[in-house]
Amino acid sequence: MSELDDFFFGDPEVLAALDNIERQHNVREKCGTRDREKLASTSGPLPGSLPTRPWPSYAEAAGAGVPQASLSRGLQAPASAKTNSAPLHGRNTLQLERSKGASSLSKGRTGAGPPPAPAQKRGPTVKVTAVLLPGARLGFRFEYNEALIGTIKRIEGREYDAARKLWTVPQKRRDEALRALQSCAQCSVEVEDLPQIVSTVLQAAALQPDESEMYGLIPGDMERQMMEFQREGVKFALSHGGRVLLADEMGLGKTVQAIALMACYKEDWPCLIITPSSLREQWADALNRWLGITDDDIHIVYEKKDTAISGTSFQFLIISYDYVSKMKEDLERRRFQVIVCDESHYIKNHKAVRTKQTVPLLKQARRCILCSGTPALSRPIEILQQMLALLPRAKVTLDRFSERYCQGSRWSKLAGASNLDELHSLCTSTFMKRRLKKDVLDQLPAKMRQQIFLQLTEKDMGPVNDVLCELEKVKQALKQGQHEGGDVSGVKLEEKRLLNKLYFTSAHSKIAAVQEYVNDLLENEEKFLIFAHHQCLLDGIEQCLRKKRVKFIRIDGSTASHERQGLVTSFQENESCKAAVLSIRAAGQGLTLTAAHLVIFAELSWTPGEIVQAEDRAHRIGQADSVSVHFLHARNTIDDIIWQTIQHKLDNVGQTLNGCQEKLQVEAGSCGPRQIHGQGKLAPPPEPRAAAAARRADEILDGLESGAKRQKASCQQTQTLFDVWKQNPLAP
């Protein structure tokens, strides 16, 4: 409350302006003579007409036309008015409004004089709308105004976005830009700031530490083999405190980036890796190839007996989403500070048990790395739980998020989508790094091959181990017969028969593991081709797709020729047709299936040319993207032998035709082959599996390709691959 000496008395211009304010407000009628006399008797003689409403504020007086000279004189009330505290029409004091940032009129009573008048706004009111943009930038949209343009040009880092027709500044300059716009002297500015939910998330993200200096902790060999966009992904994550969603499209190496981040945070080990069950072995193998982590430091949970981790020493714990709830107490007790969630769209549903059990673990971890090529498969609401896991301080509620981004209907407030550009900009500015293949195509090879290692159960491996034992006996008999110089042709035929039997038995044993992999793959909703040779495996894949009610096509030896083109057209043009189940030999040539960028081999062929031809169903003229090729490999099966054999054949024919060795190159790594042993594994072999596979394959090749038979087989292989090479001389 101000005192009576805050008022202006004795200046006709002031009183005239006050009368003008009274007329504008129409609050009361002007006082008559009798009122003025009554007021003078209580407060002393007052000149002129005095309104009975409270005195206006400094800002009101300035806006009503009071001359600046009159305001600056600082006129005082008469002494009688200062000493008389009698109420004025029932008011003890009169309240003055104060504009934002202005000092009180009663301030400075020590002789310094009254405060200066605030700057007067002239010109029209201009509305400025703030817009969040990708790349950590903020845009301001307004009608053309030279004064505002001049103001914003003085801000460091400002740019004009011709496509969007607005001015942009770095997000870190947001407050500076708002102050500059609002203080523009040539016009009044009305700013429509960012929505509250956007501001809240930005503020939470700003609290994350910038740890870019830790990039140097990545092992040198690994860093040199990474692609430039992968290095950028790691740097983005470090600049956001290790809390990131790596949302690159499938095939761009999210696993490699996550492992590089874990290497940077070695002081926070041990690490927890949560992944779909079909990818557990893949993570263990990647850790070995990139960081040299042996199985002594990796614990994989396959079944209930592996869940007892209390008192167990390891650097990496790999579990599936299903085991998070089963191991909740042990996981909470360990308090992992680095957690990786592969295929993090598994926690998209806020009602699902695995989401309720997983998200709290992610919130409490110091570093949280989510990986998903499709973090939101169909609706914006699917990314909310991942946002909450990475930015727990934001405290975004389901209602606030759905109101802004889901455009709910009367039937479901979570089913719709709205303000998607803003949501994309918000995610990419605060926690998400996403690149498409087309964005980094110049850095990608035409084909990216990768081995996916499947884990078969002891029950599935039983028939395979029986055939391997028979094969070992025959091999010993063959060696003995060759040593004694006897006829071994019958023994060789038996060995060949057993190899064919092992080929079929391995395919049958892989059915359950391949189905599990396909189920996980369907979560991504990406089109794919999946090849197999045996009918039992093709049937198992088809059964899995039908159970999931996924639209697919199947082409094998029983498919009529006149039906094939119709099936191909359906796959190419129908977006809902997600899979093509194909026979390696029957559908490996002559078909164009470029709608898919992912090719999967559920089993291998003995002839590398057939594999290359099958890959090229997707990698053909008209395919604008790089093609990812996944080989589903089950260790200690025929896959070990065939993989080594086709590499051997490619070496021979490549040296003959091209003057250099050729291989089916798969994803590179910094370290040698992974050695499987230690805890959490089923039936570990006595020697490294890769070495055992190579030795076994070489021995079989030595037996099959001896003498004239070996020479004849080599000629046939060379002719087959030469025919393939003539059709596609640049094929790997």
Automatic annotation (TrEMBL):
Domain (HARP) ranges: 122-195
InterPro entries given in the database record: HARP_dom, Helicase_ATP-bd, Helicase_C-like, P-loop_NTPase, SNF2-like_sf, SNF2/RAD54-like_C, SNF2_N
Residue ranges with Basic and acidic residues bias: 28-39
Biased composition (Polar residues): 81-106
Domain Helicase ATP-binding: 235-393
Stretches assigned to the Helicase C-terminal domain: 517-665
UniProt keyword terms in alphabetical order: ATP-binding, Helicase, Hydrolase, Nucleotide-binding
Keyword Isomerase: no
Molecular function as annotated in GO: ATP binding; DNA endonuclease activity; helicase activity; hydrolase activity
Matching SMART domains: DEXDc (SM00487), HELICc (SM00490)
UniProt-recorded name of the protein: SWI/SNF-related matrix-associated actin-dependent regulator of chromatin subfamily A-like protein 1
Gene: SMARCAL1
